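Narrative summary of target 7.
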Amino acid sequence: MSNPQLPIRRRHLQFLKLGGSLITDKTTPRTPRRDVIARLAQEIKSALAESENLRLVLGHGSGSFGHVPAKKYGTRLGVDSAEGWRGFAKVWYEASLLNRIVMDVLHESELPAVAFPPSGAVTASNGQVTNWNLSPLRAALEAGIIPVVFGDTVFDEILGGTILSTEDLFTYLARELYPQRISLAGIDEGVWADYPQCTQLIPEITPENWAQVDSALQGSASADVTGGMASKVRQMLDIVEQLPDLEVLIFSGNHPENVRKATEGNPLGTKLLYRHQTRV
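Modeled conformation, tokenized:
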């Protein structure tokens, strides 16, 4: 049941992540899949045109840009040396470089998108967001602008510096903005029960069946310093438990129209829910 106290705009608010594995070739450093980004932008444009009430916070991963130097310097684990801070700056540069490519394509598609780089707005403590002035982001949503966040370096009062993934950012934003849905578009069809064979898809994950599927989840096959599928699922399941009206979709954005379908609530990939029974 939806919370009747929430403004109508929040009932139509969704978060969408374009995964790094989807928008870049993660096996080759600095390799964007610009044609894929362009197709996804058109699907987002269609979704917004079909639903005038839809408000969207868009996020994207760093793929073969930020993850490569992040792995080399161990930035996610903290920064405490001159070399580490140089690595911190390199990760920031690579993440911002990909973000610029994404923003270019969004604007080529005539989408009203504005980047909100976490490095300049977010502070953390031990890898958790502690301070983020969301007034500009809220104002963007009210104006019909698409705020774009992305995995980025941030300063951390315990670790010195670290990296926050898009899922980290979405987790914080979800507690503040109460979206209806979080959609994570990658290259996998969903969450596999038999990775890396990838023949059995898990259609639904809930707190009740988590113990049964946990052992089946494995990390990503390519460089991903913010964790593989297992950490993403656990993180999203945690926020679903905290916000029972929220649903999370993990699906493939490689199939044309899947991103648009996800915003409409069509069954795709793997769904994370608080309750096992079908929601109404």
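Confidence is low (pLDDT under 50) at residues 1-8, 219-223, 276-280.
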